[in-house]
Specification:
Layout (H helix, E strand, L loop, with lengths): L10 H33 L13 H9 L3 H12 L13 H6 L1
Length: 100
């Protein structure tokens, strides 16, 4: 694969790149949903999903899950959104099952 950005790409290359991006983004979305489910399980019954908790809870979750505290903050903000629906877990995203 050459580094010439201005060169036109064949239709096959364009489709393969698009499929790669779709698969990569589906995997990231799946991992995000798994992480949010883990957060819900860890905080269930504590009341911390509805309101801010004691200092350090987000940092602790971030260390346990191996992500940035900003990621946990973003996940908690999404989980607290009134219209948020937790996706069904238990199935892999469409692109992952075929690639393994």
């Amino acid at each position: 694969m050459s580094g010439t950005w201005g060169a036109p790409a064949s239709w096959e290359v364009v489709c393969r790149r698009s499929a790669g991006r779709r698969r990569y983004n589906a995997e990231r979305k799946f991992l995000r949903n798994v992480r949010r489910a883990q957060i819900v399980c860890r905080l269930a019954g504590t009341g911390l999903l509805e309101r801010a908790g004691p200092r350090g809870v987000q940092a602790l979750l971030a260390r346990e899950l191996g992500v940035s505290p900003a990621t946990i903050s973003r996940d908690l903000r999404a989980l607290r959104t009134p219209g948020y629906r937790m996706p069904r877990l238990g199935t892999e995203p469409p692109g992952l099952a075929a690639g393994r």
